[in-house]
UniProtKB/TrEMBL annotation:
This is Branched-subunit amino acid permease. It comes from Roseibium aggregatum (strain ATCC 25650 / DSM 13394 / JCM 20685 / NBRC 16684 / NCIMB 2208 / IAM 12614 / B1). The chain crosses the membrane at residues 31-50, 62-81, 121-139, 151-176, 182-203, 232-249. Pfam families: AzlC (PF03591). The lineage of its organism: Bacteria, Pseudomonadati, Pseudomonadota, Alphaproteobacteria, Hyphomicrobiales. Keywords: Membrane, Transmembrane, Transmembrane helix. The keyword Aminoacyl-tRNA synthetase does not apply.
Length: 254
């Protein structure tokens, strides 16, 4: 008798009650083998070329990749170091570039927390992996999983992506001299293109899409007139306009 072939494991299949946290971490690591992770890796390959041209050593490049993690913040820190900026101004610049991660973390933590069980240190570990790639994946897939499995799954996913990117950044740093500059730049550009497409696809509310459109329109304006604070003001003004605009459309002026 012929039997149906095994179905590939999808998010729907992950609704089985967790046997153990390590099982869910393994599933998260397996889910990290994905197109988004490879696109992010390609962007870090491009960054390795920037780091080497900026005079960073291999150890410094890997330390920034593993500890800072989010690529825009790493680029800002690299620019600050290469320009001779002091520690305090560099820290402020990185903090401003990373401020976008705070609302993302605040939105994600309640999703993966098990009330009365999850420890603070576990959430701190998970928060380190919050970047656009992991966040978009988590917000899209974690709601379909049992709450007890969400935290270990996310840590497994984020840890696997971070580890793979960490290793590939080191390899790319050593081999980047043989890579044409245009290729490295193209790989670096893949990340914002992917982020834009992923965020648009994961948006569930009209306000989210309106905020993205407002950001695309306001970003160049603030980049010209408020350099250094452009990302912060684009998000603040664009998000406010999107929220108020969609609220007016939905409820009317009354």
């Amino acid at each position: 008798m012929m039997t149906a072939p095994d179905q590939p494991e999808t998010t729907q299949n992950l609704q089985v009650p967790p046997e153990h946290a390590r099982v869910w971490m393994a599933r998260g690591a397996r889910a990290a083998v994905s197109i988004p992770a490879f696109i992010l890796t390609a962007a870090f390959v491009g960054y390795a070329g920037l780091a080497r041209e900026s005079g960073l050593t291999l150890v410094e490049t890997l330390a920034m990749t593993g500890l800072v993690w989010a690529l825009p913040s790493i680029v800002v820190l690299t620019g600050a170091i290469s320009s001779g900026m002091g520690m305090i101004p560099a820290g402020i610049a990185v903090a401003l570039a990373s401020v976008r991660l705070m609302p993302m973390t605040m939105a994600l933590m309640p999703l993966i927390k098990v009330p009365g069980k999850t420890r603070t240190w576990q959430l701190l570990i998970a928060s380190h992996f919050v970047a656009v790639t992991a966040w978009v994946f988590a917000m899209k897939h974690l709601p379909d999983m049992p709450r007890e499995g969400r935290l270990p799954f996310f840590i497994g996913f984020g840890g696997a992506v971070t580890s793979f990117v960490f290793c590939m950044t080191g390899v790319s740093y050593l081999l980047v001299e043989s890579m044409p500059g245009m290729v490295a730049g193209a790989l670096f550009l893949l990340t914002p293109v992917y982020f834009l497409c992923s965020l648009w696809g994961a948006a569930r509310l009209n306000a989210d899409r309106a905020a993205m459109v407002a950001g695309l329109l306001l970003g160049p304006v603030f980049f010209i007139y408020l350099p250094g604070l452009d990302l912060l003001w684009t998000g603040l003004v664009g998000g406010t306009i999107a929220y108020i605009g969609t609220r007016i459309v939905r409820r009317g002026l009354s």
